[in-house]
Write a structure and sequence with these properties.
Elements (H helix, E strand, L loop, with lengths): L15 E5 L12 H7 L13 E8 L8 H12 L3 E2 L4 E4 L5 H26 L6 H7 L5 E2 L13 E2 L16 H4 L31 E6 L18 E10 L9 E7 L12 E5 L4 H10 L9 E6 L17 E3 H8 L8 H8 L5 H11 L4 H9 L5 H7 L7 H7 L6 E4 L10 E7 L2 E2 L9 E2 L1 H9 L1 H4 L17 E7 L14 E4 L6 H16 L8 E7 L9 H9 L5 E6 L14 H7 L1 H10 L3 E7 H20 L3 H13 L3 E6 L1
Parallel strand pairs: 1-2, 2-3, 2-4, 18-19, 18-21, 19-20, 21-22
Antiparallel strand pairs: 5-6, 7-11, 8-9, 8-17, 9-14, 10-13, 10-17, 11-12, 15-16
Helix pairs in contact: 8-9, 17-19, 18-19, 19-20
């Protein structure tokens, strides 16, 4: 969130620009939580921010239910407290490309600021507030100069639709054949075609350099991994068990890992999530060191500091970069080297590229004219820095440039797949080993940063030697990983055990429900006098004999009464039945329409979904709307309202990913 509370909003009279993203199930980002909590204080009077004028840009992803809810929440609350817009709110969608809203929103921001400052001048008689803005807006017909705003929204220069001088913005048309030979009819990452290849380009301003890296001869110890997160306590715990849940010929490989948390204060409930601190792939780090020309210096200590005389306002060393550590430590544990490069990074890489054709293509990819090429060949293709350096071999960026532009390597979040009541001192989780196939810009396939690392780490447990093998899939291990809790405030079992609930979890989406059922089984054993509501589980996978996860465990839950109803489907298995069986969980739900409606409407039950959002959760929501509409004999709009009420009451809960 780009509003620092060093500016006192209680008294701030200058226009305020707020940029805020959304995380989790519609929550504000961690950096904005204190601010949001503060403004949601119910005792604040309705004119608390009557003096405040602001413009807000929300960043979100419409793949998720609560699109831009972080921005909407702040916007709504500021309005309730009397604040005024000086500029219309923008809501940018990462699903289609943030720049589609961000770019025009920034375009209009400068004029809106000018008008807001002029109005302020008229009200307060301030002569100097607008002069810098007015002069910069009228300097030249083709360029809107940089505005020095008192916030972190800075160093943005927006080009007019006209072309800038050919010496610093666009290559002459003579260069086009270096980029797109006449025989290439289709554009690619490295080749462009008209009209982009023949256009004068509007490209972003070059971001100012602000980081300096100094290599040192002295030796020291690298920081502890706990220093890489601001989430509070981290726990280094051993992996005690690893089991492959899928057959070797399954399309995806699913693994179950068990962690020993006995000697820690780590606490969790079934339905919670936790995060794993993971490193980048060793071979990718080595390739990057080679590209930087620093292969021999990976173990050297470096000191990272702010460059003297930098033009970046408020420059500081990124919090995720230690002041002193080895170069390998930074590239392995601190930077997301697989991140999709932003346009500002591409703009900076232009200056590190010597080949004229490569330089022009990088300019195109970060320009307005090349926006669709950027989306197609960078964003949608998941291109990363290593891919770019492979595709543009004359590009030789500095280490400091990487530190300036690559984001923090984020810890990866996983759903807990166990109950501490059922397995004291143990924490289990399930994941698919993610695979990224080779592509024209990537000669080899990749595994997921964290899932690939974990799979490699537990390989000795999955394939133990005869000497160390105790039971299949298990052996002693000394491997440890660092984790920290990420509690889920809503995705938990109903507080009243007599309330029935339905669980929908195809594939690895079943993970939290194994914890639910373990917990419920233990409660039934400990409290035979309690009343327990019925439980439903809808599970789906591709093949019954290849990737039916927890098949034996589910059968046991059925037999002992913990699970009342188990409904399964297999999308890739062929059938000789006269009526084809349902392929997907949403199809099975429709077959159980009366029971589903009864649990939700008559018995005030809960409904849980876990798994892929785009290809499952949305279809399940649509099926529920159809079921409610049919069983209530109401129109679809009325059914959608009922579903919205269930969400609001926290009785329709999702733990989904895209």
């Amino acid at each position: 969130m780009v509003v620092h509370l060093q500016y006192n909003l209680e008294t701030e009279k200058d226009p305020v620009v707020i940029v805020i993203s959304t995380t989790g199930t519609g929550d504000p980002p961690d950096t904005a939580r204190k601010f949001v909590k503060k403004i949601q204080d119910k005792t604040l009077p309705p004119d608390h921010f009557a003096h405040l004028q602001y413009g807000l840009l929300g960043l979100g992803d419409s793949e998720y239910m609560f699109f831009c809810n972080g921005g909407r929440t702040v916007d709504r609350r500021l309005q309730e407290l009397g604040a005024q817009h000086f500029y219309d709110t923008g809501l940018a969608d990462d699903c289609v490309g943030l720049e589609l809203v961000v770019d025009p929103w920034i375009d209009g921001l400068w004029l809106a600021l000018k008008e807001a400052l002029q109005l302020q001048k008229e009200k307060e008689g301030m002569n100097n507030a607008v002069s810098a803005v007015s002069s910069s807006l009228s300097t030249a017909p083709h360029v809107v100069q940089e505005l020095k705003l008192s916030s972190e929204v800075q160093n943005l220069k927006i080009e007019d639709e006209g072309a800038r001088c050919s010496d610093n913005l666009s290559q002459k048309l003579d260069d086009i054949n270096l980029v797109a030979p006449a025989r290439d009819a289709e554009p690619s990452l490295v080749h462009s075609v008209p009209p982009v290849s023949q256009s004068a380009l509007n490209i972003p301003a070059l971001p100012p350099e602000y980081i300096e890296v100094e290599f040192q001869d002295t030796q020291d110890e690298n920081p502890h991994l706990s220093s890489l997160t601001s989430e509070g306590t981290t726990f280094e715990v051993p992996i005690t068990k690893a089991v492959q849940l899928t057959r070797e010929d399954a399309i995806k490989t699913a693994l179950l890992l068990e962690l020993d948390i006995t000697d820690t204060s780590f606490e969790y409930q079934p339905g919670d999530a936790f995060c794993v601190i993971c490193p980048n792939n060793v071979s990718e780090v080595e390739k990057l060191l080679h590209s930087l020309g620093l292969s021999e210096k990976g173990d050297n200590f470096v000191c990272v500091k702010v460059k003297q005389g930098t033009k970046k306002k408020g420059a500081s060393r990124p919090q995720h970069i230690p002041e002193r550590s080895t170069l390998k430590f930074i590239l392995t544990w601190c930077l997301e080297i697989r991140a999709i490069p932003k346009k500002a990074f591409l703009r900076a890489l232009v200056e590190c590229t010597s080949d004229a054709g490569e330089k022009r293509r990088l300019q195109e990819l970060c320009s307005r004219q090349g926006a669709s090429d950027y989306t197609r060949f960078i964003r949608d293709s998941n291109v990363c820095l290593l891919d770019l350096l492979h595709a543009f071999p004359s590009c030789k960026p500095s280490l400091s440039l990487l530190i300036e532009h690559l984001p923090k390597l984020q810890a990866r979040s996983y759903s807990v797949s166990s109950s501490n009541l059922y397995q004291p001192g143990r924490l289990c989780f399930v994941f698919n080993v993610v695979e990224f196939p080779a592509s024209p810009c990537r000669p080899v396939s990749w595994k997921g940063v964290c899932t690939g690392w974990l799979a490699e780490l537990v390989a000795p447990l999955l394939h133990p030697s005869k000497n160390s093998q105790d039971t299949k899939g298990e052996s002693s291990s000394t491997e440890k990983i660092s984790i920290f809790p990420r509690p889920n405030n809503a995705f938990h079992l109903p507080a009243d055990p007599s309330v029935p609930f339905i669980m929908v979890g195809p594939g690895t989406g079943i993970a939290p429900f194994i914890g639910f059922l373990q917990h419920r089984q233990k409660l039934r054993e400990q409290h035979s006098d309690w009343e327990f509501g019925e439980t439903w589980l809808f599970f789906g996978c591709r093949h019954q004999d290849r990737d039916y996860l927890f098949k034996d465990e589910l059968q046991c839950f059925l037999e002992n009464g913990t699970l009342t109803h188990l409904k399964v489907c297999f999308s890739r298995d062929s059938s000789t039945a006269e009526v084809a069986p349902p392929k997907y969980v949403q199809d099975v739900l429709r077959l159980c329409a009366k029971e589903v409606a009864r649990v939700l409407l008559k018995e005030k039950g809960y409904f849980y979904i876990c798994g892929d959002k785009k290809h499952m959760a949305d279809d399940v929501s649509e099926a529920i709307v159809d079921i409610l509409s049919m069983e209530m004999e109401a129109d679809k709009l009325e059914a959608m309202k009922i579903l919205a009420m269930l969400r609001e009451a926290k009785r329709y809960l999702q733990d989904v990913w895209s």
